Amino acid sequence: MRAENEYVGKLYDRLDAQRELAATRLREIHRREKGGTSQSRMERDTLEIHHTRRLSELHAAEYGLCFGRIESADGERQYIGRIALADEEQEPLLTDWRASAAEPFYRATPAAPGAVTARRHLRSRGRAVVDFDDDAFGVSALEGRDSSELSGETALLASLTAPRTGRMGDIVSTIQAEQDRVIRSELGGVLVVQGGPGTGKTVVALHRAAYLLYTHRDRLAKSGVLVIGPNRMFLRYIDQVLPALGESEVVLSSIGALYPGVTGADTETPEAAAVKGDARMARVLATALESFRQLPEESWTVTVGRRSAHQEQLEISRALCERAHAAAHRTGEAHNLARPALVERLSSELALRIARDRNARSEGGRMDLDEVADLADELVDEPDVRALVERLWPLLSPEQLLTALFGSPELLAAAMPDFSEAERATLLREPPAPDPGQAVNPDEEAAWTTADVPLLDEAAELLGPLPGRGAAGPTDAAADARELEFAKIVLDDFGVGLVEMDAAMLARQYRGEESFRPLAERAVEDRTWGFGHVIVDEAQELSPMAWRLLTRRCPGRSMTIVGDLAQTGASAGLNSWGEALDEYTAGRWRSVELTVNYRTPAEIMRITEGVLRAIDPALTAPSAVRSGGIRPWSLRLLPEGGGEAKGGRASVLRAAVEREVAALDGGRMAIIYPPTWSAELFYGLVELDGVTVIDDPSALDSPVVLLTAAEAKGLEFDAVLVLEPAEILAAHARGVNDLYVALTRATRSLGVIHSGELPELLEGLDPR
Ligand SMILES: Nc1ncnc2c1ncn2[C@@H]1O[C@H](COP(=O)(O)OP(=O)(O)OP(=O)(O)O)[C@@H](O)[C@H]1O
């Protein structure tokens, strides 16, 4: 212990020295003149970003700086920690956990130790090492011992049984071998990680993000990594993990937040979500868009030159309109971007016709080609021609297209012939109030749901930006070549990827067109941003339309997909991984499985066996890494008048909750209720001290939260009370998956409270 404390003390001294160095450099930069040449200003700012980042990395490494060491046969020792440190002579003192040299620390098992002969896990409090445990490898070490595949068992169990805090923490010190293989899997292609509840899919996916950014910083620093979680609550639950690993630039988002300017609400009915998520909706939107491009039965008439001596009527034949449409189609551009070609075709044909007529009548002499071109330009500004263009090819925003589609039964019927009447009806929204006296609530009008977001994004692909909006504009093209050159030199000087911006952006910044903004900020505001790697958590919930959106955000198709098909609750969610991936990444996805459940004790997992069988008899539950003392129990609430005083059910329920809360001892508890649950009982619980309804991410800080199974997905608690399992089962088509999610959230104790009979698939609970 003394030796370890001495060594770790030396590491902290180096950490302090490194911090001091970075802080001094930063102070020097701040003292430098703000003015100077573009190049010197660029250098100054790039260095500032670099040293600020380095300082925050060094601060993030404070807690648990060094957590282990390995020894090889020749007696060489290597300490493993959060970052790499070297002494004054540049001799390595500490190996970064993400470096390939650290891999044996995580991968060695008694059965396959590789070159490792001994491994030690250190546990610290503050800067002091307070405990360690050793794994001894080699044949002699195996005798008389079960060859546990777990690494650092004591440290692992200590972390698994510690009270939950409402926030996920990092696991760098206790990553297990099968998890390490996922974390260090190569960057390219799509990696699917299937695993039952509690197998560490989320935590592993986040460590993989940190690993990939460390290993492939050159490729990922400028394009960024996107992590998708199911909702805001979940994102809050995980948002400390990457900063604790020294990474603050990863973009965390839910599908509902991926369309700039819109926050999708989770208020959709399962039926509507299933229709909106259906892959056929891509075709539906394209058809709906086509219906906006009108054609006359035979012809339309427009009047031009109303305010001049040359007023004339022009016949616009269907054939002309078709030629104009064809010109737009030929561009291959998105709808709004193709319109100028239609306008060009229409106005030139009309101008030519007018010129021919005039020439034939010999009015004002013959028109030459330049004059015809001028006339065509004038025609474009004619009010009737503008109105004509609007009928032929109106400019549309994604919001307008969707609002029109959802507001019109006729349009829905025309665009969705393959859907049933009932399915179409789920999309129908009240059109905005026609009576101008009747105020429309602007919030209501703009209320988009999570299931709408992939549709808005799809529509944006079809439509393209409106003129003057969205596109990067002329700035790129006009980039001053000299400044661009400077920017390249500056970035080269610092090593590619040291700061996550490219030369063009740096140059724009110095023309004052753009101020430096972190990648996360720029990426979320840009619908067309292509991320270098996308990680999707709870991926089984994503609809085919959401997959389309994500593949657009990840042009290189480098993705990590983690999820559990047994937990699919969304109506448009997946039944198999191939369903989502074969279409976009056929032959380019590989899958691995995580098999050990770190969260839920064996006693609780036994209760879920029948539920898992009901989902799919072929599925096997992950094996629980530990057993816990508390046996899962059930409590029946007798019906009113069944021997209890009025209000008895509510008071029995409250008493049960209070008993559990008292036993919590600083941890966190969840009460998971069916969406159809009795309002009276619900409000009875809300009144209790410390109980919070989960309507805002900060609710996770509360000791007890009331939430549905869908909201509980991905989260974990010390104690869980599941209310009315029969109602959870019956609530919707995937109720059994929801019940499975609800039962697998606890790290310590599980209670089930029910009014009617317990569902048969729930066996083995101790009645109270
Ligand atoms: N190697 C490990 N060391 C310490 N804790 C771990 C390890 N692996 C997993 N855990 C812990 O186990 C718990 C479950 O992990 P996580 O939430 O990532 O599982 P999951 O597979 O995403 O579960 P679910 O599918 O139920 O959401 C977390 O508290 C996590 O920190």
UniProtKB/TrEMBL annotation:
Superkingdom as given in the UniProt entry: Bacteria
Residues binding ATP, per UniProt: 195-202
InterPro entries, per database record: DNA_helicase_UvrD/REP (IPR000212), P-loop_NTPase (IPR027417), UvrD-like_ATP-bd (IPR014016), UvrD-like_helicase_C (IPR027785)
Domain UvrD-like helicase ATP-binding: 174-601
The entry's keywords: ATP-binding, Helicase, Hydrolase, Nucleotide-binding
Chain segments annotated as coiled-coil in the UniProt record: none
Pfam families linked: UvrD_C_2 (PF13538)
GO molecular-function terms, A-Z: ATP binding
Protein name: ATP-binding domain-containing protein
Organism: Streptacidiphilus alkalitolerans
Lineage, broadest ranks: Bacteria, Bacillati, Actinomycetota, Actinomycetes, Kitasatosporales
